[in-house]
Amino acid sequence: MFLSLRAEVEDALEGALSTLDFPTDDLGIEEPPDDVESVLASSVAFRLAGEAGAPPPQVAGQVADEIDADDLTYVSAVQTQGPYLNFLPSDAYFAETLETATGDTYGNLPDREESVVVEHTSANPTGPVHVGRARNPIIGDAVCNLLEYAGYDVDRHYYVNDAGRQMAVFAWAYETFDEDDLEDEPERDRIEYDLVRYYRKGNAYLENASDAEVEAAEAEIESIMQGLEAGDDEAYERVSEVVDQVLGGMTECLARLPAEFDEFVKETRFMRNGATDDLVARLKELDESVYEEDAWQLELEDHGIDKNLVFLRADGTSLYATRDLAHHEWKFDEYDRAVTVLGEDHKLQAKQVRTTLELLGNETDQLRQVLYSYVNLPEGKMSTRRGTGVDLDDLLDEAIDRARGEVEDRLDDRIRDDDLDDEDIERIAHQVGIGAVRYDIVSKQPTKAITFEWDRALDFEAQSAPYVQYVHARCCGILEEAGIDPETGMADVETAVDADLLETEAERDLLETIARFPAVVDEAADDLEPHQIATYTREFADRFNGFYRECPVLADDVDPEIREARLALVAASKHAVANALSILGVAAPRSM
Predict the structure, then answer these.
(1) Is 439:465 a contact under the CB 8 Å cutoff?
(2) Which among 215, 315, 344, 555 would be 20 to 30 A from 384, CA to CA?
(3) Selection from 579, 475, 442 nearest residue 520 by Cα
(4) What is the distance between the alpha carbons of residues 75 and 64, in angstroms, rounded to a whole number?
C-alpha cells in the first residue's frame, strides 16, 4: 500500500502546486523521521519559498490548504510542521495493507514485461570456488531474486572462460599427466578437487622443466589456443572435457548457497559462430584502433581511459575482452537489459568494455554493472588442509558446524514445546549456518571490503541472519499454536478481520513497516542493491519484536476480535519477512 499512498501523495501535491502556479518538477517527497507520525512528508516549501516570496512554513500552509484529504483514499490528513507537509495514513491504508500482506506473494510487483540477463560468478573453471570470490554468487543471486520480485523476467547466466591460455594449459596437463604423476590426494570427493591437481601439476611443470621440455609443451598449448580461435572441433572438445567436468563440480558447490543458473554461456560460442572475427574487423575500422607492440589496440585516452584495450594479438588470437564485447552485443540483441556482477579488480575492464561498445554504435543505457570488494577472513580463524587459501566449501562446512553448536546450546531455552530430533537440528543448522554466511555478505554495500566474523554472523541476539530468521520461526509458532497453517496464513480463516482494532503504537508501527516492503523492493531493484532488503529485514525484526513484547496474541484475556486481528498481523509479518529473506537467498526456518 505504500506505493499506492506515494502515488496518491504525488498526484495531490502536483494538483495543489499547479493550482498555485508553482512548478511541479520536484515534489520533495521523503520519509519522515521515526518520531513523526506521518508516513510521507514533503519539503517542497523550501524550494518554493523564493518564488513565492514567503517563508517556507507559510508556503507549506498554502499548499496544504489546497489538498482536501477527504478526496484521498490512503491519506487521512495533511498537516504542516514548520516548512514540512506531513501525510498521515488512513484506516483504509492499514486495512488494505493487512489484507494484501496476508497473501504469500506479498512484495511481488506487477509484471514489467521486460527481460533482464544477469551475469554473475563466472569464476574460471580451473578448480574449486575460493571463498574470496564468494561475494559474487551471493550478490549475483540476490540481484536476480530482487529483479524477479520487482516484476522483471530474469535469466541467470554464468559466462564461462573456456578459451584462454589457462584452459589450454589445463587441457594439455590433463592429457599429459597420469594419476601417478600427481603429488597429492583430492581434498574432497568431487570432480573439481580431483582435476585441479592436473592444472597445478601442469603449471609446476612449466615452471621447473627443462627449456626443451617447456618449449614442446608450449607448442602444444599454443596449438590448442589456435585451434579454439579457428573454431576447430577437436580443440574445442579437448578443452570442454576438463571445463565441463570442473563446472559440474563448481555447480554442486554453488548449489549449496544456493546459487543456480539458467545457462552457462561459453566464450567459445562467439569464436565458433564468427561473432569474434566480425567484431575484430569492426574494431580495426575505428579511429581509435592502432597496431602497437605487436598487437591491435584501441587508444581510449580521449575517452577518459588511460590504458589501451588490446583486442588482437600478433599471432591472430583474440583476448577475453574481445570475446566479451561480442558476448555483450549478443546480450543486447536477446534482452531488454543486461546486468553484470563484477569484482572491483574488473573496474577498468568494465569501463573499457562500455566505452568500446559505444564506439561500435551500441546503446549502453541498458547495461548496468554491480562492482563489489572481496571477502576476507580473520587471520587464523579458519584453517585449510592445503594451507594456501580457503575454499567456499570449507566456509560452508564450518558455518553449518558452528550453527549446529548454537542450536544445540539453545535447546533448553526454547519456549516452543515441539520436540526437535536430530534431523530437525541438522536442517536448522544448514538453514542458519548457510543463511548466516549469505546474509552477512549481502547485507553490506558491495563496494565496501568486509571481513567475515563468525561471532557477528551467528549472533542470535544481534542484527544477523539468525536474529531475522528467529522472527519468522516465532511467527510460525504463534500461528501453529492458534491452529493456523503458517504456509497459507489467514486464507483458511473465515472470520472477517478488523484492522481498526490494531490501534496500539507497536501494532501500527509494524503495519507501517509491512506496508513499506513492496516500495523497498521497488527502490532496491532500481538501484540494484539487495543490501537494502537486508536493512529492511533488520528494521522489520525490531518492529516485530516490539509488537511481540507489548501485544499478546493468544493470551486468555485477549478479546477474540483483537486476537483475530493480531493473528492476521502475525500472518502478514510471516509473509513479509519470509519473502524478504527469499530475496536475499536466506532460508526462513519454520522452527528454531
Answers:
(1) yes
(2) 344
(3) 579
(4) 13
**How buried is residue 104: exposed, middle or buried, by Cβ count under 10 Å (0-12/13-18/19+)?**
middle
Instruction: Indicate the SS3 state at residue 436.
Output: helix
Mean pLDDT for 570-579 is 96
**Using an 8 Å Cβ cutoff, are 315 and 221 in contact?**
no
* pLDDT at res. 389: 65
Query: Average pLDDT for residues 159-172, to the nearest whole number?
Result: 95
For residue 460, the Cα-to-chain-centroid distance in whole angstroms is 23
Q: What is the Cα–Cα distance from 321 to 312, expressed in whole angstroms? A: 10
Work out the pLDDT band at 164, boundaries 50, 70, 90.
confident
**Alpha-carbon distances of 301 from 154, 359, 362, 467, rounded to whole Å:** 36, 13, 20, 50
Comparing C-alpha atoms, which of 20, 78, 69 is closest to residue 48?
Answer: 20
Instruction: List the grid coordinates of 171.
Output: 587441457
Query: Residue 312 corresponds to which cell in the numbers above?
Result: 588482437
Helix, strand or coil, per DSSP, at residue 190: coil
Q: How does pLDDT run across 429-453, given as a tens digit for each residue? A: 999 999 999 999 999 998 888 888 8
Please state whether beta strands 40-42 and 29-30 pair in parallel, antiparallel, or not at all (unpaired): antiparallel
| Backbone region of residue 155 per phi and psi (left: phi > 0; alpha: psi in -120 to 50; beta: other values) | beta
Task: Kindly give the pairing relationship between strand 263-266 and strand 153-160.
Answer: parallel
Of the candidates 278, 264, 271, 177, the one whose C-alpha atom is nearest the C-alpha of residue 233 is 271
178-217 residue pLDDT tens: 999 998 899 999 999 999 999 999 999 999 999 999 999 9
CA distance 564 to 501: 10
3-state secondary structure of 21: coil
Nine-digit cell at 77? 490528513
Residue 341, strand partner residues: 370
Report pTM.
0.92
